[in-house]
Amino acid sequence: FQPKLLAGRKVVLTAGPTFEAIDPVRGITNTSSGKMGYALAQACVRAGAEVVLVSGPTGLPAPLGADRVDVRSALQMRNAVMAALSGADVFIGVAAVADYRPLEAAEHKVKKSSAELTLTLTPNPDILAEVAARPAAPFCVGFAAESRDLDAYAEGKRRAKRLPMLVGNLVQDGLGGDDNQVILYDDAGRHPIERAPKTEVAQKIVEHLAKLLTMSGNR
Ligand code: PMT
Fold it and tell me: Is Flavoprotein a UniProt keyword of this protein (predicted)?
């Protein structure tokens, strides 16, 4: 009998893009499909965890056995994560959260004119940084999608947010498609995982996470 890798653990994840409204019909978003986050949520369920998936807008069905909370903006995602964190052992930030949002969303549809239009953006809160900085923070796993210099940027993000583990991928590998090629970063160094369907990559990430959790004395 093999006990499940995440049995008894509660995992909170974010996935997908966020949508930052400009007016009632327009907004700023990105091309994250949610596939990587949903695959990871499913792998956590399969590993025996209680899973809360806080999801931005995607066209994907909810992972079987996970509790999905639908949100649209980064602020909504932040609030849903904070509400879900109670009792969480692990937080995984897979979402491609918009770094900025329009300072003010127009109440009515912005009308076309021949004049230039300036959109003022304000920074969104960094959800992962906020979770990781909490006094009794869960074990936090970050993601980083970069278009170049993956090692330097990914390890930089891991250290800046003091994360025990971060999953790095190149934008051209990870964004949108069914496959991904990732490198796991932790205190012991870098651990490349070969290109595979996101479902298989997710399984490998869960195995590494479970090992680090055990080593960290987190049971
Ligand atoms: O959805 P798919 O199409 O399957 O694509 C998957 C993916 C490429 C989106 C995914 O694998 C990935 O890399 N996600 C992270 C995207 C990213 O570049 O994040 P970031 O570098 O902006 O942020 C770093 C980390 O902080 C991430 O864990 C992110 O979720 C988190 N973050 C960032 C900004 C913010 N305001 N709040 C956050 O929590």
Answer: yes
Q: Tell me which residues have their CB closer than 6 angstroms to ligand 1.
A: 14, 16, 32-37, 74, 93-97, 99, 124, 126-128, 142-145, 157, 169, 174-176
pTM of the predicted model as reported, rounded to 2 decimal places: 0.97
Which two tokens mark 198? 């996101």
Number of domains making up the chain: 1
**Rounded distance, CA 63 to CA 130, Å?**
26
Q: Indicate whether 108 belongs to any domain.
A: no
Angstrom CA distances, 4 to 23, 44, 160, stand at: 46, 10, 32
Residues that are catalytic: 30
Q: Ligand 1, closest atom to CA 39?
A: 4
Q: Is residue 1 part of a domain?
A: no
Residues of the domain holding 207? 10-99+122-215
The answer to whether the annotation marks 143 as part of a ligand binding site is yes
Residue 114 makes CB contacts below 8 A (sequence gap 6+) with none
Q: Is 10 annotated as a binding residue?
A: no
pLDDT per residue as tens, the chain (219 positions)? 667 999 999 999 999 999 999 999 999 999 999 999 999 999 999 999 999 999 999 999 999 999 999 999 999 999 999 999 999 999 999 999 999 999 999 999 999 999 999 999 999 999 999 999 999 999 999 999 999 999 999 999 999 999 999 999 999 999 999 999 999 999 999 999 999 999 999 999 999 999 999 998 765
| Strand duo 20-21 + 27-28: pairing | antiparallel
Q: What is the CATH number of the domain that holds 195?
A: 3.40.50.10300
